[in-house]
Amino acid sequence: MGAGIAEVLARGGLAVVGIEIDAAALERGRGHLESSTGRAVKRGKLTEEARAEILGRVVLSTDFADLGDCDLVVEAVPERLDLKRKVFAELDRVCRDDAVLATNTSSLSVTEIAGTTGRPTKVVGVHFFNPAPVMRLVEVIGTVLTEPAAVRRVAELVRGLGKTPVTIGDRAGFVANRLLFGYLNQAAAMLESGHATRDDIDTAMTAGAGLPMGPFTLMDLIGLDTCLGVLEAVYAESRDRRHAPSPVLSELVRAGLLGRKTGRGFYSYG
Ligand code: CAA
Fold first, then answer.
1. Mean pLDDT, residues 139-166
2. If we measure between CA atoms, which residue out of 238, 239, 88, 107 comes closest to residue 170?
3. What 8-state DSSP symbol labels residue 241?
4. Fewest CB atoms within 10 Å of the CB: 30, 55, 66, 162?
5. What average pLDDT does the chain have?
6. Going by DSSP bridges, is the β-strand pair 72-75/58-61 parallel, antiparallel, or unpaired?
7. Tell me, what's the pLDDT at 38?
8. The 3-hydroxyacyl-CoA dehydrogenase NAD binding domain covers which part of the protein (predicted)?
C-alpha cells in the first residue's frame, strides 16, 4: 500500500519522502514503484519522460528525520495498534508542528492512534483502496478531536490527486469496508458450509453481478490478515454477527497463508 500511495502522490506532482523499515523493504518499495510505472509506460498511459519525473519526485529513506519538512505524512505500516502508536509518537517528535499526520488504517481507531501525539487536532485517517493507483475512492476520516480545517485540506489534496474523497467519522470499517466485508465474510461462510465452491462463488459474482473480481480473488488481493483485522474490528464495535470472522479465514491466517503477498491464500500464485 505504501508504494502505491507514494506513486499516487508523486503522479500528482508532489515531492514524496518514502520511509521504510530497512534496506530490503526499501528495495521492495522501489521495485513496486518501478514496475507499476513501467507497466503504465508499456500500456501507453505514461511517457518514459513522465515516468522518470515521477520516480525523481520520490526520495526513499529509512530515517524518520527525513520527514522533518513534510506538510502531510501518510502512515501505512501493518495493522497493529501498538506499532501504529509507536510510529505516531515518533512522527509527532520529528515532524513540523503544523504538519498533518494521517493513518491509512483500514480498521483501527484513528482516535486511539491520535492519542499518542501532542497534536490530535492534526491527525486524520486517509484510507486508500487496493490497488491505490487504480481505485478512485479515498476515505478521509476526522475524529471528534480533529480540527475541521485539517479534514478539508486533506480532502482537497485528495481531489487534486484525481481521487474521489468522502469525509466521514471514526467508526470501525468507516463506510466502504463496513459494507464490503459483510459480503466478503458471507462468501467465506458459504464456502465453509459447502454451499458452493470457491470458483463457483467467484464466477457468480463476476459473471452475475458484474464485479471486477469475485470475493475470494479480492480477499487474496487485500490480504487475508487485513481482512481478518477489518472483520474483528467491525464485529467488536457493531456486534453484528454478519461480521463475526468466518473460521476458514482465521485458519488461513493462522497458517500464514495471507493471499497474493505470501503466494497462497484462497488461491495459489506463481
Ligand atoms: N498497481 C497499479 N496499477 C494496477 C495494479 C496495481 N497493483 N493492478 C492493475 N493496475 C492497473 C493496470 O495497469 C490497468 O491500468 P490502465 O487501465 O491504465 O491500463 C488497470 O489497473 C486495469 O488492470 P488490468 O487490465 O491488468 O486488470 P483488471 O481490468 O482485471 O483490473 C483491478 C484489475 C483494477 C484490480 C480490478 O480487478 C478491480 O477493480 N478489482 C477490485 C478491487 C477492489 O475492490 N479493491 C478494493 C478492495 S477493499 C480495500 O482495499 C480496502 C481495505 O481497507 C482492505
1. 97
2. 107
3. G
4. 162
5. 96
6. unpaired
7. 96
8. 1-170
From first CA to last CA, the distance across the chain in angstroms is 21
Separation of CA 133 and ligand 1 centre (Å)? 8
Per the listing, cell 482516535 goes with: 111
Active site residue 36: no
CATH value at residue 163: 3.40.50.720
Domain shared by 26 and 127, yes or no: yes
| 195 noted as active-site residue | no
**Side chain identity, residue 262:** T
Indicate whether 107 pLDDT > 90: no
State yes or no: pLDDT of 85 exceeds 90.
yes
CATH, residue 216: 1.10.1040.10
Task: Decide: 135 in ligand 1 pocket, CB within 6 A.
Answer: yes
Does residue 48 sit in helix, strand or coil? helix
Q: What average pLDDT does range 21-47 have in this prediction?
A: 95
Q: How remote is the CA of residue 37 from the centroid of ligand 1, in Å?
A: 14
For residue 270, pLDDT over 90 is answered with no
- ipTM exceeding 0.85, yes/no: yes
